[in-house]
Amino acid sequence: MAPSPEAVRLAKRLRGLRDSQDVTLTQSQLAKALSHDVRVAVATISSWESLTNPKLPPADRLRSYALLFCTDRHNADGTPKMTAERDLTADERGRFEELHEELLGLRDAASRLQGTATGSSGSGSYTWDFENGPITIICPEAPTDERPDLANEKDPNYTRMYRYADLDALMELWGHVRASNPELPITHRLPSEVKADDMSGHLVVLGGIGWNHVTKRLLKTLREMPISQFEVSDLKTGEIFKASDVGGQEFRPVFEDGDDGPELVEDVALLTRLRNPFNSNRTITICNGIHSRGVLGAVRTLTDIAVRERNEAYLSKHFPDGLFAMLLRVPVVNGEAISPDLEIPENRLYQWEPDHKVTKE
User: Fold this and answer.
1) How far lies 34's CA from each of 53, 75, 80, 101, 322, in Å?
2) Nearest-angstrom CA–CA distance, 329 and 92
3) In 181-278, which ranges are continuous DSSP H helix?
4) Per-residue pLDDT tens for 41-87?
5) Fewer CB within 10 A of the end CB, N or C, for the chain?
6) Beta partners for residue 268, in sequence order
7) pLDDT tier at 298 (50, 70, 90 boundaries)?
8) β-bridge mates for residue 206, sequence order
9) Which InterPro entries does the record cross-reference, listed alphabetically (predicted)?
10) In 3-state terms, the chain is what percent helix, strand and coil (to 5)?
């Protein structure tokens, strides 16, 4: 399928910036210049500049482009010098803001048509596009007494996947991560199988603290994030969330009386993307919930074709560095989790970003 004109326009603009120097930068030189915090591969630069199959850069990378090309500062070898935003002069800041706005506008225009007319990865889930690997998805393990008979290794029809909890969320996410990163190593593991090397790559953690001790460990390790999850005596089926920076507000599911007892009608999801605390050059993404419907809702926020483009655009606009934490309302209808649309204010229960800008919706 041919790429959209908007995607090609952004690719041409990025290539034009690289060619606009006194001496044309090679893609290798540009990759090195942009690797001031997280490494950028030469192949990644090539994919962003491709006119036949362009891949949209993450929004935070466009900010780096704007910082690099808004000044006339150079390194000793003549290549552009990356300057921190706080060190820009008034004129440089004006050029930075103008170029940054232009690039984000081009990206947003291409993003709106990503699902129908672009020749990129095809998933439309830019949060799940990684520049490097490995990528490890850690999925909770169902307690022994909750597993079906086929999870028993002694059964002739033993099926390992029956050991997994939140299997709906894993299967939903697995295909999107694989489609977006066909050349990167991707694995899924149970918490008991996690190795030290896994923790230093890109991590995607599914499920809550009850069945995934890695989630529990990470929520304690990510001390900067003011969201915690804990058990309460009046809810035996999951653990609720609390945000410490808005007076310790609690976020709970909603039940209604049904023919067979209380029926879950709204769950709460935690969707988080931060720097990996064990390797700042990699990321950690947490898709968590009070119940399994919340975990699935967190995943489908950025995989469901009905809402993912709008949701990616919302994240790009409100979290340009690509780092955030959100608590989301997940409606449940006839037992099915409804994917949260971030453009609906009622679905955004709470949001936070690492520079401590807090919004209580």
Assistant:
1) 22, 13, 10, 18, 16
2) 41
3) 213-221
4) 787 888 899 888 788 888 888 999 999 999 988 888 778 888 888 99
5) N
6) 329
7) very high
8) 287
9) Cro/C1-type_HTH
10) 40, 25, 35
Strand, helix or coil for residue 205: strand
Contact of 16 with 69, CB cutoff 8 Å? no
Q: Are 54 and 107 in contact (CB under 8 A)?
A: no
Burial environment of residue 121 by CB neighbours within 10 A (0 to 12, 13 to 18, 19 or more): buried
Q: How far apart are CA 277 and CA 206, in angstroms?
A: 17
- For 180-199, the pLDDT digits (tens) are 888 889 999 999 999 988 89
CA 233 to chain centre: 32
Residue 207 is classified by DSSP as S
- The whole-angstrom separation of Cα 305 and Cα 269 is 19
**Could you give the residue ranges of the DSSP H alpha helices within the chain?**
5-19, 27-34, 42-49, 59-69, 90-112, 114-117, 167-180, 213-221, 292-300, 308-318
Integer Cα distance of 278 and 221 in angstroms: 10
Mapping DSSP to helix (H, G, I), strand (E, B) and coil, where does residue 110 land? Answer: helix
Instruction: Tell me the backbone φ, ψ of residue 186, rounded to 5 degrees.
Output: -130, 130
Torsion of the alpha carbons at 335, 338, 340 and 343, rounded to the nearest 10: -140
Per the omega criterion (within 30 degrees of 0), is the bond before 54 cis?
no
Query: Using CB atoms within 10 A of its CB, is residue 84 exposed (0-12), middle (13-18) or buried (19+)?
Result: exposed
